Amino acid sequence: MPEEILRRVLTAPVYDVASETPLEVAPLLSKRLQNKVWLKREDLQPVFSFKLRGAYNCMVHLTDEQKKAGVIAASAGNHAQGVALSASKMGIDAKIVMPQTTPPIKVNAVRNLGGNVILHGDTYDEASKFAKQLVASEQRTYIHPYDDLDVIAGQGTIALEMLRQHSGAFDVIFVCVGGGGLISGIASVIKQVSPKTRIIGVEPEDAASMTEALKAGERIVLDQVGIFADGVAVAQVGEIPYRIAQTCVDEMITVKTDEICAAVKDIFEDTRAIAEPAGALAVAGMKKFVEQYSVSGLEMAAIVSGANMNFDRLRHISERTELGEKREAIFAVTIDEEPGSFKRFCELLGGRRAITEFNYRYADSSRAVVFVGVRTEGGKPEREAILSELAKQGYAVEDMTDNEMAKLHLRYLVGGHAKGIANELLYRFEFPERPGALLQFLTQMSEEWNISLFHYRNHGAAYGRVLVGVQVPPEQNQAFECYLQNLGYTYVNEQENPGYQLFLKPTA
């Protein structure tokens, strides 16, 4: 299989539409990581993503009859733009099925490139299913985003460029993984030309379909897929990419949302370019690899795979970057509710460290719980030192730095415990960003259940983050579970979250 991919790569005419992108040294990252870091700038393609390569290479191999009948694709963004531009270049009619939740900036980009956009479903899987139905009814050719030999070969042309642009072999190349088309194309080429170069795939922790597949020895379907890095939000990797990865990918690394945000900033500081979350995955994985293995002096490359970023997502990314860089710690600290205690606590923390956030509201006459952010430079060891120092001073403290509910919702809700609310259940949801999503949530809910808490956050993504408290009589808990299952939204039970217990749980 890799031999066939390499053969196709060598004859792929991708430069009819794509550009040979630069391979640039990242001086700030290189100095910080103590390795020479190279960035392959696929964010500089005409559609701001590598996807153009594979889409065009697939379509150029269509027969005259297939070209006349037209093509169809399903995508939430980058692949759609690649297909639309390629179709425009070749004079082919293209229909692109995109989820209704797709941000307008991406829909408009596809339309501006000449694609006929059809909005259908809330997810990529629903859009893909509908697109395949149109294949049968309209006799169009389906252009798969990753599970196709010519698509993979198109992406593999990136590896040929890197080999030409760099004198000597790379020690490690980091590649983001969604469906697997990019890494399988790059790995197929590199492993035959430079077999000692390690190929490492990087996925978000909550969308690790290739990691789990390689671990299980077979392709698996994830029950839930995190959508922060929407460009790689795939529940199951492609069959062809999986087979290639089994022999050509050396290791998989998973990273957290905060680490992705920090990588977006790292790329910006070296290039002044803003990568989308999926586009920064490889850099996030590189940083984690260096930390885990304490390596130095290596030649490392990361693929900056795309820059189709909604501007309003930058607020969320900026907010989470300090945590991803391990330069901020978040704590919940219990202090005495008495004159002077607030000042003493601030003096203990603020005398030597910068306080980044402080939330407090009076709860009762005996104790108070404060939500506090502290600037750190020493990562986890410094965080542990702060915990130890607070404990020595007699404070009860909870580390909230890795608590997703706290970072998404709690920091905006600190306001004291509610009183007199019985049988409250707390859940965190991802609502699709489309008209009627909230109404559906409310319509399916029993009128016997009362909403006691509601906090909604959206950051320009396809899904909004919602924290909901609902009063449900104990005898109806099973019915509530059925409601959650039938609703179809991603959800997490936060009943035992320490943030809820400390700040929000109702008192008698």
CATH class of the largest domain: Alpha Beta
- Count the strands? 18
**Shape-level CATH architecture of the largest domain:** 3-Layer(aba) Sandwich
Total helices: the number is 20
Shape: globular
Strand residues, percent = 15-25%
Description:
This protein has 20 helices and 18 strands. Helix 1 crosses helix 9, helix 9 packs parallel to helix 11 and helix 12 crosses helix 13. The chain has 508 residues and is an alpha/beta fold. 47% of the residues are buried. The model has no long low-confidence stretch (mean pLDDT 88). The longest helix has 17 residues. The strands form four sheets. It has a six-stranded mixed beta sheet with strand order 1-2-10-7-8-9, with helices on both faces. Strands 5-4-3-6 form a four-stranded parallel beta sheet, sandwiched between helices. Strands 12-13-11-14 form a four-stranded antiparallel beta sheet, sandwiched between helices.
